[in-house]
Design brief:
Chain lengths: ~280, ~280, ~280, ~280
């Protein structure tokens, strides 16, 4: 989040910045909590509008409320542009783009009318739910989990690569064994079945019909059941490693300044000086 | 569990308290084990009564047995009120409310008769199964697991929040991709599908029909399969941390200052000085 | 496994014991490996006979083979009775009973003929697959996993108890919410649904039809998805604890004889003597 | 990967080796990355050709492209034979066989024409996807996960053996309880159901119909849900053990003999002596 480093900014813009961007000041906190409620309400309206029964009865009302929220969020977007020191930099940041996406669909509907675009319009409108991602800003603990995920990202990438290779091979195998009669009409469709089975989801919309097919499916299931251990093991190990890193003393060696000593170390492990 | 702190209580009430509330005295233990059996039997009758075939044949019998159990539990409830030092405080405690909920439905059926309320009555009667929660009192080991769950509650909350955000985004995505023709009639319905798929339950009552929909579904499944590692990692880490806390003394050696001694250690394991 | 403690046994019975019971001597090893193959073959025949298409064609052959295996295993059972020092004690041991169950069904079919008992006969015959449990004797590593499971048995019991309570409450809830129209005809049936959903199996033979039912189902799924972490955490912790116990030195204190010292301990942690 | 140990090789073959086999030189790296793209493209064509709609329109084009890729890979295979010092040894190595399997199916289609073999031909053609396994060479981190899997292979073998025994017993049990009317027509088919249920896949193509069958199924599900903890615990433990082995030096302090020093320690952390 950008910080206003310059005291030469007009006082009212500094104050606006404090309200709109800061979360620690009373005014900023009140603004953020209110905004959170409004975002949740606007998401609820988007969800409700998608239900045919509700749309048939309250369609007009939803339309009006949606325009109200759009107006509100547009004003908020402009205030943010005004408050921030470098508006262009903010507009291109992650939250700047998210905030724009939250208001754009409704406005675009004005410029691009027409029957055939209405469906696309609805699609764009749905992007407004991304607005809710702001919630994450309130949850600082998420960073810890995220750090563990980031630390294990390469191992998880290898794991997912292996899973995709397995899906390719096992999907082709079931395609050969079962064939089109059982619904395995193509390799991509069979790969979809392999993912459904390997991840133990098991819709049942595609299921092997022959004895050999059931045998192959059994192997896929046992594989999926067993290798589920791999991401769990990776993440657990990474989380424990993070905890162990925190178990290391923060004390620096008075002689050489090295850090990273065990909590029970009495001598610097690099220069031998007493800690 | 409240304790009778006052010896000025009449002897019979003290004795009653020992039987009804205490689990360590022979009489209290016998009472608790008998109560456990009666609770299980009454739950069994509630289950049996809900089966149409059994209700058609033994409906009258079930009705009579239910009244018997209700009478028994009502007497027990009154005895508890009598035995405890501060009846009102106990009645508002967790187990006091549970005990009341176990007898109320059958009695309410007398005051509020009528065809249309019979269904609601049945609903209230079902709350009697909460009575079984008393069983938990017998299982002290549950506290350990509960402690680990409580310690990781914030991380689990963040995880569930992230999962719900994913469900919102992925549900909207499949709603756009598949649409009403494939059964994804609204965003809430599509979010239900996303939960079914992400948790690897996979009923199959809703399944993508188009190639693009299957591609989105595959991503949802692989996500659900991978992030299952997160709650497992959190809980495992918390359980290990709890074990470590219990396993290592915080006492430092008075001679050499070394820490990390086992709880049963009487001498410093580094210099041999008495701890 | 019983050991022949008495050298007064006739030489041929001692030799027979070595062949039939011992697995370390060349003859005993050859016998065990042959037996393993025969057991697998007999299980394969039981499986093949249950397939209607194969039974229609090869029914007679299967019948003959089955009698052959029964004769073989009967002879083996008698040899074991002959070889062992205390036949009655062995016959009542776990493997003695398993071995008897492996031959009894076919013999019982002779004594108890008749149309209506034929189905029961087939049921008893299926018990012959228990014979395969002997395989476990070959896998010593199984003991390690078993030990970890036994160590965590109380925690797993508490976990399963909690899961069953959840199943009772959630099953009753969905029974109330969905009712008989959606297939939730009784509480036991609804509890079956709760187990199917909580364990993330998700057959789809029972699925909620109303919006409120889908909401309850979503909570059940997220619960099942999250608490899967609990048995995993318990077992992982127990396995690591077992590994740590093994990480403890087996050296006894020369002064006080106490054991259980850390590998890096230089002094007995109980008496302070140098190790 | 074979290494050219002999400098007596002609310069052009040495250069060819560097390009075709080495991945560190600029030319070799460019070759490998290009090859990777070509392999992915050829796999994409195999997938696309299996889709009936695409094959109907672009069948001829796919045929031509496939021949192009086959020609390319054949030239590459011959170049590898030429470049390597001991062609026969390489041809029999894992990657040599994979490379041959990638080109053989298309060529075999020329020698073995005929309507009835066309299906088999398509089957052989599918083996070309094994070519993608080369990708693994780029992912060195895979080795770590593989090592942990290899270290826990015996425990996983025991686990899978136990699961298969459970499947045999539980499958036979449901076969007896449900019988052919509910679709459990044979023990192998019932074992397939047991695997589907135990691994929590749950297609729903086979589901118990009777109350007793649902009870057995519930036990299978709870078993599958609980023992999922076993492979996860095994793999997590193995991964942590590997991390510990890598993290701690086996070097003892020459002065005080203390062990357990970090790999980057230069002084004993207990007495400060130089290691």
């Amino acid at each position: 989040m950008p910080k206003s480093e310059d005291s030469a900014l007009p006082a009212w813009r500094h104050r606006l910045y404090e309200i709109v961007f800061e979360a620690e000041t009373p005014a900023g906190r009140a603004f953020d909590i209110t905004l959170l409620g409004v975002i949740l309400a606007s998401v609820a309206v988007v969800l409700a509008e998608s239900v045919p029964e509700l749309r048939a009865v309250h369609g007009e009302l939803f339309h009006a409320i949606e325009w109200g929220f759009t107006a509100l969020f547009t004003v908020e977007y402009l205030l943010r542009l005004l408050a921030v020191r470098r508006p262009l930099a903010w507009a291109r940041s992650f939250f700047g783009v998210i905030d724009l996406l939250a208001v754009l669909p409704t406005w675009l509907a004005l410029v691009l009318p027409g029957a055939q675009t209405l469906l696309v319009l609805r699609a764009l409108r749905l992007l407004r739910i991304f607005r809710i991602f702001k919630l994450a800003a309130f949850l600082s603990e998420a960073n810890l989990l995220l750090a563990a995920l980031v630390a294990s990202r390469r191992k998880i990438f290898v794991f997912l690569g292996t899973v995709l290779l397995l899906v390719l091979v096992l999907g082709s195998l079931i395609y050969l064994v079962e064939g089109e009669a059982a619904g395995f009409v193509s390799i991509p469709r069979s790969m979809y079945w392999a993912i459904v089975t390997l991840t133990t989801v098991g819709y049942g919309d595609l299921a092997p019909q022959s004895g050999l097919g059931r045998f192959v499916a059994s192997i896929v299931m046992l594989l999926g059941y067993s290798i589920l251990a791999v991401p769990t093991g990776i993440f657990t190990g990474e989380l424990l490693a993070a905890a162990r890193r925190r178990g290391i003393s923060t004390q620096a060696c008075p002689s050489c300044g090295a850090e990273g000593h065990d909590l029970d170390a009495r001598h610097c492990k690099f220069c031998g000086a007493k800690l």
